[in-house]
Amino acid sequence: MLGFAVPQFGPSARADLARYAATAENLGADSLWVGDRLLTAVHPSIGYAGQDTIPEQFRAALDPFIALAVVAAATSRVRLGSSVFVAPWYPPAQLGRQLTAIDVVSGGRLVPGFGIGWSPEEFSAAGAPFRARGAQLDEVLDALEQLWTTNPVEHDGKRWSIPLSWVDLKPVQQPRPPIYLGGFTGASLRRIGRRGDGWLPAVLVPGGVSPEFLAMQRRTIDDAAREAGRDPSAIHTYVRINVAGGTPIDAVAEAVRTLADAGYPDVFVDLMYVATDADDHLRWVEGLLAA
After folding, report:
1. How far is the C-alpha of 150 from the C-alpha of 242, rounded, in Å?
2. pTM above 0.90, yes or no
3. Cβ–Cβ < 8 Å for 121, 37
4. Interacting residues of 116 by C-beta distance below 8 A, sequence separation 6+
5. Per residue in 37-74, pLDDT tens?
6. Alpha helices in the chain (DSSP H)
7. pLDDT digits 0-9 by tens, 167-192
8. What distance in Å separates the CA atoms of residue 122 and residue 118, rounded to the nearest whole number?
C-alpha cells in the first residue's frame, strides 16, 4: 500500500491541494498524509533531525487540520493520516472535536498520528511547556479515549481538565480511530508498545533505509506490548520515506520494494524536498505508483 505526504510545506503550500488529492486518489494512492509545523525559528535552539538548522521548506506550512479537511472533501477512498500532530500543543477537547469532525466528514478514514515535537520555539509560541512532553502526550491520549468512547465525558489531569460534559458527536470508526505514534527514543518506542495501535517510523532515501534498524526498534515495541499484556502483531506500521533533494525516482521505488520485502508493505513518501508544486508532486506520485 503506497501513500504520499500532501503538498503542504514550502513552495508547494498553495491553493491546489484539492486537485492534487483527487488526482492522487485516481492514480491509485492508498493514503494521504499531513505533518504539523507551527513556525520556523530564525535562531533555533534545536535544529531539525540532529542538524543545527531547520529546513527552509518549513517556513510555509498549511494548517494540518484544514489540509485534512480539504483532502477529505476531495476524495472518497484514501486513508487520511497525520505524521504527526504535536499533541502537547492542543487542548484535548479542541483536538478531539477537530479529529472527530474529520473522521465523520470523511466517512471513517482518519489515521491520527501523534508525537511530542522537538522545537522549543514552537512550544513557546503554542503556550505549551517543553518539559515533560511525553507525559503531556499520555494525558492527551487519555483524554481522547474519554472523548471518543464515553458520554458524558470527564477528564481531570495534570495539565488539562474537562468538566462533566455531553459530547454526542463520536467518530465513525468504532470504538475510536486507531492511534498511531511516532518517536525514536526508547521511551517513545515503549509507549507505542503499551498503548499504540500503530507505529510511524521514518527512513531517508538515499542511504537511510535499514530494515535491521527498524527491526531493532520494533523489538523494543514488541517487548513493551507483551509486558502490557498486548499482542505485538496487532500494532500496525506505516513507514514514512523522506526523500532527500536530488534523489532519482528509481531510488525511491527501490526503497519501497526493500521495505515491502522486509515486512513493511505500507509506506508513504514525503516529497517535500524534491517537488515544488502540486504538478511536480503528481508526477512523482504517478511514477512511483507505476514503478
Report:
1. 38
2. yes
3. no
4. 86, 87, 88, 133, 134, 136, 137, 183, 188
5. 999 999 999 999 888 899 999 999 999 999 999 999 99
6. 17-27, 64-74, 92-105, 120-126, 133-149, 186-195, 211-227, 249-261, 278-290
7. 999 999 999 999 999 999 999 999 99
8. 8
